[in-house]
Specification:
Blueprint lengths: L3 E4 L14 H10 L4 E5 L4 H7 L14 E4 L5 E6 L4 E7 L4 H17 L12 E3 L4 E4 L7 H7 L4 H13 L3 E6 L3 E6 L4 H12 L6 E5 L9 H5 L3 E4 L3 H14 L2
Parallel strand pairs: 1-2, 1-10, 2-3, 10-11
Antiparallel strand pairs: 3-4, 4-5, 6-7, 7-9, 8-9
Helix pairs in contact: 1-8, 3-5
Length: 251
């Protein structure tokens, strides 16, 4: 029997970097009354709040059902009723020297390949403490431009090949629609799921994961590789249809 529903964010719960739809918010509120909810993504913590949590408009007690894992599971937050806010369980922070080197190598590689845009929408490279993220068009680029930029990941794969040689002791992953994420070696969404299992004292068989990149090489694939049951979706509408069915079946 499943106890936890876990979700990727972009193209699983929402359009990339966009707030969840009202229909998704309603479904998450209903499903959180029946299951623990884990959300794991390369986005930073504040993006989780803006994109998902602040859209729920639910009672504070229900927030204790949510487990937030920003920056690909390098951080883990839960809600405390006692402290009236989100509490950090852990953060696998990179050192300042590591982050500076990552930023330098990301910029050098992108410019060498002529993938550094003239027109940008926000920061191209963002230091998230436990992760450094490159966004090819900028953090705030319109969704339609993001989806058109690198649909097969080939441009980012060229950058990754360079970085794999320059940052051998770090993990370089293609994520989202235009991003590359760099963390400590061995940290991916499977790492986050293992931490969730430890914290909740559950078995992996009690988790059901939803993601849009479950194929080998996709940033959701590590979850599938650790034999957690997964459902692959292509957009948030598919996810919400499944959640509505689960809500009906578990009424």
């Amino acid at each position: 029997m499943k106890k936890v529903l876990a979700f990727d964010v972009d193209d699983t719960l929402a359009v990339t970097k966009s707030p969840i739809d009202d229909r998704m918010a309603e479904s998450l509120i209903k499903i959180a009354k029946k299951f623990q909810i884990c959300i794991i993504s390369g986005a930073k913590f504040e993006q989780f709040l803006n994109q998902i949590i602040n859209r729920l408009n639910t009672e504070e007690e229900l927030l204790t059902q949510f487990h937030l894992m920003p920056t690909c599971g390098t951080q883990y937050f839960v809600y405390s009723l006692f402290k009236k806010g989100w509490q950090k369980i852990y953060s696998q922070d990179l050192s300042l020297a590591q982050r500076k080197k990552i930023i330098l190598e990301l910029e050098k590689a992108a410019k060498a390949l002529n993938y550094w845009p003239e027109k940008t929408y926000g920061d191209i490279i963002e230091d998230r403490g436990s992760q450094v993220t490159y966004s090819a068009l900028g953090q705030n680029a319109p969704a339609e431009l993001k989806y058109q930029y690198d649909p097969d990941g080939s441009k980012r794969y060229e950058i990754k090949k360079i970085l794999d040689q320059k940052l051998e002791q770090l993990e370089v992953r293609i994520g989202g629609t235009t991003s590359i994420d760099v963390t400590f070696l061995g940290i991916d969404k499977a790492f986050g799921m293992k931490k969730l299992i430890e914290n909740l004292k559950i078995k992996k068989e009690e988790i059901l994961f939803f993601g849009d990149k479950l194929q080998p090489g996709g940033n959701d694939y590590p979850v599938k590789a650790m034999k957690i049951d997964c459902i692959e979706v292509t957009n948030w509408q598919e996810t919400v249809n499944i959640l509505e069915t689960i809500n009906l079946l578990t009424t």
